[in-house]
Design goal:
The protein contains no helices and 20 strands. With about 220 residues, the protein is mainly β. It has one domain: TolB, C-terminal domain (Neuraminidase, 6 Propeller), CATH 2.120.10.30.
Length: about 220
């Protein structure tokens, strides 16, 4: 299997970049170490706005002009989805506990939030009440998720301590989803987003954010 074609490898504005999202012009990053959210201008590679999250920002996705952030909160690292309004802050009245108190990455298909569970190897589609509406089982552990059109793209691995990671595509439209590993990511990647042309992920342990070409 071929490796991804890296386009840029940039120093993260904060250590341990964990989560990523793209809103059409801004690259949003959440740091595992600082527990803050950063709005990055991708052209100038500068931070225009940042704020503290209610917990570790394991996953981020864009919902219209807002963000949804999957936070690990309290000493028990309870997994809770929070609403964030860019330029304003977190709405702490908005609280959606993750099913089974488990989940890391988030996706938005235009109608529903999707939570990925790494070790159970599942993507959960949630209703507005946070209840599970569908479970998609995948063959690998999941450490990144983004919707591109009708497809779910995932960063996956079978052994997180290795450099064997993949970009995996899921077609969720059939009753039995069609799943395909497309290309190898030769480092321990975390998070996944798409800017309309290219993908972005984190090489967290190197404190770097990496863009790579969409495989044809």
């Amino acid at each position: 299997m071929k490796n991804i074609t890296e386009l840029q490898r940039l120093a993260s504005p904060a250590p341990k970049p964990q989560s990523l999202a793209w809103d059409g012009s801004t690259l949003w990053m959440g740091s595992r170490e600082t527990r803050r959210i950063y709005a990055i201008n991708p052209s100038a590679w500068t931070v225009g706005w940042e704020l503290a999250a209610p917990g570790t920002p394991w996953g981020i996705t864009c919902v219209g002009s807002e963000l949804r952030v999957l936070c690990g909160e309290s000493a028990e690292d309870n997994r809770i989805i929070r609403r964030c309004i860019p330029g304003q802050g977190f709405d702490l009245n908005f609280k959606v506990p993750c099913p089974d108190d488990s989940g890391s990455q988030l996706g938005w298909d235009g109608r529903r939030l999707h939570v990925s569970q790494w070790y159970p190897k599942k993507v959960l589609a949630l209703g507005t009440d946070g209840k599970i509406e569908r479970v998609i089982n995948v063959p690998h552990g999941i450490c990144g998720q983004v919707f591109v059109g009708d497809y779910i793209y995932l960063v996956t691995t079978d052994a997180e301590e290795t450099a064997d990671y993949w970009l995996t595509r899921v077609d969720p439209r059939p009753a039995t989803p069609v799943i395909e590993d497309l290309i190898r990511i030769p480092f321990a990647a975390r998070a996944l987003t798409f800017d309309g042309t290219n993908f972005w992920t984190n090489h967290r342990e190197q404190n770097q954010i990496v863009s790579f070409a969409r495989p044809v």
